[in-house]
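Sequence in, structure out.
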Amino acid sequence: MPTTYMKPLNLIPKVLLLFLAMLALNLSAQNINFKMEQLENENVKTAYVDKENIMKKLVIKKGFRSFSNHIVLRYFKLEQVLELWIKPPDATSYSLLKRYKACGIKSETGPKKLLGDHVVPEGVYEIDMLVPDSPHLLALSINYPNNADTNRNGQKDAVSITGDCGKKGNISLDDESLKEIYVMAVEARAAGQEDIPVHIFPAALVENNMAKLKSMYPDASYNHELWESLRVVFNYFNKTKRLPLTQATDNGLYAIQTSAGNLLWNPTEDKPLAPVLTASAQELPEGVTTRGIAKEKAIAKNMAISSASLATAEDGSSLHKVATGETLFSISQKYNISLGNLRAWNNQWNNNLEIGQALKVSPPPFYTVKKGDTMYSIAKSNKLTVEQLQALNNMNDYAIQIGDKLKVREG
């Protein structure tokens, strides 16, 4: 009987799994080693002694269970504000942890071009090195020039987030703020984040600031195009809390896609796509909400009426327009809802109705987070468990911010 080799072939998946497990362990060991190597430096030790417990408390207060998180940094040159955003390694959307006021003289507006021009660049960057022995306590080196800078012939120069408020050309912070940022960056690298994004904008690119920038520099047409590119990056992250995909064009601008790969902006086209994610946008493409979940159309359940005849309120509730002869009771019967709920949803405590009046005939599917809210309090008030609330919102953490819209029911 010929010899078969089925058993060795059956072992291949196990061998592959073992290899992947060993690779994961190796990467984990490398990340831990990185943190230990950083802590060998006295400046980093000092930063951890001074700030680790403070930052842990802040992370827990924001609703995160672990201190091991990935981060994103955003800097606004006009306001001189640096934002620190975090998320668990297996999550998709970020939450704002803290804002820092930078120090020193404001950088000139516009992209950096020349060696030694002391201009803070503008664009989509990464931290390419953590420097524990910087002359100015600590430093996080930015990968300037990136591909966009190189394509516009930007000259290589050192740019970093560091101390020394008297030096131009860097994002300068006071020592206490710098220590906090550095600790969070070390933790992010230890949590497996190889590339830490840094988005640098001329200002917070809301409509008013865009108009102001263009009026201040009416002849800087190239800058206007760059800022339009960056405005899409700014607004996409604001709306979805996710990172867009960016690619440098030949002339140093940015083509931008959603995190799912759908094109948002391409400045190389004769007619570029509209920057649909503007600060004033009411609807988000791809059904994305502020928590990054699929947004379903609000429809009233168990009702003897087509959804085409319903409108939708700002909070997602279904609206019914009062017709001649209708009463609160007849409307409640029509939609199979209680008269008490109909009154409460509309703050309608008398029986006086007007023809054409819009009445909410379903509860709002979203809850807007207010000061003092927690995941537990929101879940309890909506007769949900915290786990059910997380599932509705595609969440694996407890981080919420004032103004977040959380889905509290299907529909």
